[in-house]
């Protein structure tokens, strides 16, 4: 390893808190995302493809905005199509290895822009795709969330909990409301809170904390 790289890593480790400030959503970024969410909620699309593309566009922006992940869209396998595939960038790997950031290397992402909560069938198909892809981390994003609750094993939320307990595979489910008002939050914080809420069976919002640098970011 060259002296330049060693110096860069040392600087990152010593200034981790300051560096993390660059990965927090600003007020302007949050407002832009809120505007996109509002358009999706209105649902003024000519067809289902446009509706699906809108949710994928939003997801792409949220996960790419700070350069932690690269996204590939609409990847085709022999039997399936993957909406989005996320992989850490070089910057993402540096943050993962040299700070306490929770950042998985790869994620499969499924987006469903449906008017009703998503049923158990789609969660089962996504879990199967994760298994075939040999990945134990997936993100399922829907307009209005999933059916059921964690105690109801035949509904979507119950199935996600069951899969986590049985297979150790984590499907992090997000609805549009989870991405509203992101000012002062970071992507890694949101992902970590969602994963821990599934692992510990606690409320997602209880694990979200605003960053101590938020007042500086808003100004």
Explain this structure:
With about 220 residues, the protein is of the alpha/beta class. It contains 9 helices and 5 strands. It has a 5-stranded mixed β-sheet, sandwiched between helices. Strand 3, helix 6 and strand 4 form a beta-alpha-beta unit. Helix 3 packs antiparallel against helix 4 and helix 6 runs parallel beside helix 7. It starts with a helix and ends with a helix.
Task: Give a concise summary.
By secondary structure, the protein is of the alpha/beta class.
Strands of the biggest beta sheet: in what spatial order? 1-2-3-4-5
Determine Rg (CA atoms, Å).
18 Å
General shape: globular
Amino-to-carboxy terminus distance: 39 Å
- What is the makeup of the main sheet? 5 strands, mixed
What multimeric state do the chains show? single chain
What's the order of the H and E elements?
HHHHEEHEHEHEHH
Return the average pLDDT rounded to an integer.
82
Q: Helix share of residues?
A: 40-55%
Based on secondary structure, the structural category is alpha/beta
List the total number of helices.
9
């Amino acid at each position: 390893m060259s002296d330049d790289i060693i110096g860069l890593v040392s600087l990152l480790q010593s200034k981790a808190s300051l560096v993390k400030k660059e990965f927090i959503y600003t007020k302007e970024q949050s407002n832009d995302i809120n505007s996109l969410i509002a358009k999706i909620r209105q649902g003024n699309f000519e067809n289902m493809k446009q509706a699906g593309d809108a949710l994928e566009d939003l997801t792409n922006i949220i996960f790419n905005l700070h350069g932690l992940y690269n996204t590939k869209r609409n990847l085709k396998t022999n039997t399936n199509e993957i909406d989005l595939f996320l992989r850490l960038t070089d910057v993402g790997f540096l943050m993962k290895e040299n700070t306490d950031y929770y950042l998985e290397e790869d994620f499969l992402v499924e987006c469903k822009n449906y008017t009703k909560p998503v049923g158990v069938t789609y969660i089962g198909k996504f879990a199967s795709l994760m298994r075939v892809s040999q990945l134990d981390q997936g993100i399922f994003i829907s307009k209005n969330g999933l059916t059921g609750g964690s105690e109801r094993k035949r509904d979507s939320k119950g199935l996600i909990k069951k899969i986590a307990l049985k297979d150790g595979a984590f499907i992090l489910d997000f609805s549009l409301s989870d991405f509203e008002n992101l000012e002062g939050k970071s992507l890694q914080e949101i992902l970590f809170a969602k994963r821990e809420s599934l692992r510990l069976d606690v409320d997602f919002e209880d694990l979200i904390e605003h960053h101590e640098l938020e007042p500086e970011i808003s100004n």
